[in-house]
Amino acid sequence: MGEVPQADHVFDGGAMDCGSGLILLIRQNMLEVPVGGILEIRSNEPTVESELPPWCRMVGHLHVGTTQVDQGAWRHWIRRGDDTQSEQSTLAADKQKAQAFKWSMRARRTTDLETTLYSRNFSWKSATSIDFDRTGKLPSSLEQFLGSLLSDVINCLALRCSRRGIVLDELEGTLNATLNNTLAAVGMEAEEASVEKINLAIYVTTPAADEEMRGIMDLAMADSAAYGTLRKACDLESRLILL
User: Fold this and answer.
1) Nearest C-alpha neighbor of 76 from the set 21, 160, 18
2) Which of 55, 103, 194, 228 has the fewest beta carbons under 10 Å from its own?
3) How many domains are contained in the chain?
């Protein structure tokens, strides 16, 4: 690419791809650009380079160009089309669709010892509800449930950092949980087998300032649907440990 276009507005999409909310952000940020002006999108997701030009042609914007500025980092430029009213109404419709979106799954008992779950084009197996053995062939339902919380917080934190251009040298997490009544979970007592307490620790190595990272961690926990739900249901403690 030759001369770098002068952008009227810039935003960082981080590691989001066009199917995971980037298009919604593009539409929203496009409203900050005058008709004929240029929006610059900074991205760490390689699929955006091939998906962005056809999307622009479909909606009436002009894909000006893309350049790779570093390993795993791209800059994309879009010139805004002249259908301002359509852009606003489409954004409103997209937001409404996002708010009403439903996630669907199904599960089938496939053997005496395992259940297979299906979602979108994925499938995975689960063993018993809980398991006291330190070894096993499949994760229990409870382990998958708690693992979803841990991975969701880590993913939300990574995305927030990516969109701010913050480099994470290391990002790990640990989780410990206890139930209100473990015996109820195995059918030995007729009480509630809910989660009583969760301790969540996120370990980060980064050159970013500690105060900035703690603010981003707060935003990431607010982004996490799993964290927000469980925080209301049980005693959930979280720590960010900066190494």
Assistant:
1) 18
2) 103
3) 2
What is d(CA 243, CA 38) in angstroms, rounded to the nearest whole number?
A: 40
In what helix (H) or strand (E) does residue 226 lie, and over which residues does it extend? helix 225-233
In-domain check, residue 151 = yes
What order of strands is seen across the sheet that includes strand 235-242?
170-179, 195-205, 235-242
pLDDT at residue 165 is higher than 90: no
How would DSSP label each residue in 99-152? Answer: HH-----EEEE-SSS-EEEEETTEEEEE--S----S--SS--HHHHHHHHHHHH
Alpha-carbon distance of 219 to 166, in angstroms, equals: 14
Q: Kindly indicate the confidence band of residue 113, based on its pLDDT and cuts at 50, 70 and 90.
A: confident
For residue 91, the domain's CATH number is 3.30.110.40
List pLDDT tens digits, range 129-148.
888 888 888 899 999 999 99
Distance between CA atoms of residues 82 and 70, nearest Å:
33
Q: What pTM value is reported for the model?
A: 0.78
φ, ψ (nearest 5 deg) of residue 111: -145, 180
Q: Domain range holding 86?
A: 9-100
Intra-chain end-to-end CA distance of the chain, in Å:
40
Of 98, 101, 48, 109, nearest to 73 by C-alpha is 48
What percent of the chain lies above the pLDDT cut of 90?
62
